[in-house]
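User:
Hi there, any thoughts?
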Amino acid sequence: MRPESLFPLFGPITTLKGVGERVAPLLRKVAGPLVRDVVFLAPTSVVARRPARVIDLVEDAVQTLTVTIESHQKPARPGQPWRIRAFDDTGFVHLVFFKGVGAHLEQRNPVGAVRAVSGKIERDRYGTHLQIVHPDYMVSFERAADIPQIEPIYPATAGLPSRGVRRLVLAALERAPVLPEWQDPAWLAKQRWPSWREALASLHTPASEADVSLQSPHRRRLAFDELLAHQLALAQRKQSARADPAPAVAASALAERAQAALPYRLTGAQTRTLAEIRGDLQSGRRMTRIVQGDVGAGKTVVALLAMLDVAASGRQAVLMAPTEILARQHFETLAGPLAAVGVKAVLLTGRHKGAARAERLAELASGLTAVAIGTHALFQDDVVFRDLALTVIDEQHRFGVNERGRLRGKGEAAHMLALSATPIPRTLELTVYGDLDVSHLDEKPPGRMPVATRVAPMPRLDDVVARLNEAVAKGAQAFWICPLVSESEILDVAAAEARWEALRAVFGETVGMVHGRLPSTVKDDVMARFVDGSLRVLVATTVVEVGVDVPAATIMVIEQAERFGLAQLHQLRGRVGRGSGESSCVLLYDPPLSETAKSRLDVLRRTDDGFVIAEKDLELRGGGDPLGLAQSGFPAYRIADAVAHRDLIAAAADDARLILARDPALASPRGQAVAVLKELFDWRPDGSVSQAG
């Protein structure tokens, strides 16, 4: 139940003065549908308007000056600007206006009038005059004080400029109430942070450029509030899941037999992770655990042994993969070891229809089949399990919360084990996996060969193709990843098609292509042909899941590697080096490289540890979404920046745990204030802030 004190903030934006039918969709696009969303919209920068005389004007600076209108210079022909020549006691400046507004200007600014003018100082095209094109402000001398010395700049959109957004933000700010303090007083004093309401006011009324810094005291205060609200939501979700009773599953002789039959010994990380999973399964409480590990670290084997423990208990397990080809690959990998110890597995995908599907469903419903492997088809309404005790979700970020929930709902309090090959920096884990227990597979299986990584400039493309031709002639297979083009899938596809045509001229019909605009059946067919070896080179964009196991693929070529994030390059490189032979990765780049780009590519040459690479990516690329985290279930923070404020994440998580340990019902005075904070952000299960009033 939302407290009454928050009602003004959760009203629709149309309750703000000036937000009618025209402005509402524009403001919704910039901020969101609620008054709260407008209050949370932080300025991105400031314009410092420094007073100056004409003689002191600095090009490319934004400055304010007081001048007298000397003359109006009308355009000689259409398309030319209207110019106002103005002066002070030190020199002349031109004020330049386009779009035929001259007559209006002359009427409002007659010759001899004194005006306060502010804008960006430029040279004219001939370099002879200083000018201001379309001044930001041009007011009478008496209103000079109306020109702000420091002006915050807000996100804007066509039809709603920054200044209009600022006016609406200040109107929304007036609705923000003074709320009870939810932060620990000692922590607040130590950080020297203002109250929530004071911090909001400082956010929107900066007095200097430092005030819009992500590290300003008021911004850090507000960021910590948001992080605390998120960590509270995650902690409560985790607490709730742990409270659910679940079937206790013991370690089994069946799994021990399967482990003994493996052609290799488990790594120390696999042994540790399996022990952590078995501890959860035996606890009698629902497991919600994620196993993080690089491609090839052995996540599937650990999941297999856990599923065998479940099968030995007479219950069922299911493994869901995001694509049919990955599901089929998992089935081919697991069906043999399962059958060897007498456990029946079944593959269920969208392609199974009619009698084949009915037979599979009957075996699951009766319990005859202990392990199901498949895609989204597993959580359809007609799929019924006799006793589902464990759901394993591969690349869990590829599924929505509702999809994962529907699958888990097939069993009464079924345990959940997620697998992820996308290394998240340890400093950010709590933001993504705060509601899960985390296991790390941070060792490579013995015998796995490192991938030799080389860097080469794009002008050497022909040399790379020639060497690739030699390798393919000897039986090798290769991935060829095309560059990201202007963040446009259409342009990405065009680049991939152009490269495919060029490589076909060399390799003929043995070159295949996959990209995000192909039908899934076509993609699956191309991938299957690559897996069986009939295609030798696969051209692909990064929007396509190419994480299939192709042991014969030993070469990875990535065009314009400088356009990719480190973590993404590492993921792509992990598609090779999965067999026993030597593998290589060639990173092609467009010279010249920036120092940051050089550092990033050098990191890839020096290490193949995904966790080290993810942290380095964070360090080198800073804020925004450098790791593609938005695609990995990363929360949609409004005020906090998970990179800039990562030092606050662990503190927020610790505070959330402490609050719930001392006051699980949030009944104390501080608990009630914290409940208001939670409602203020209203986190959804998928890690986004609610947009509904």
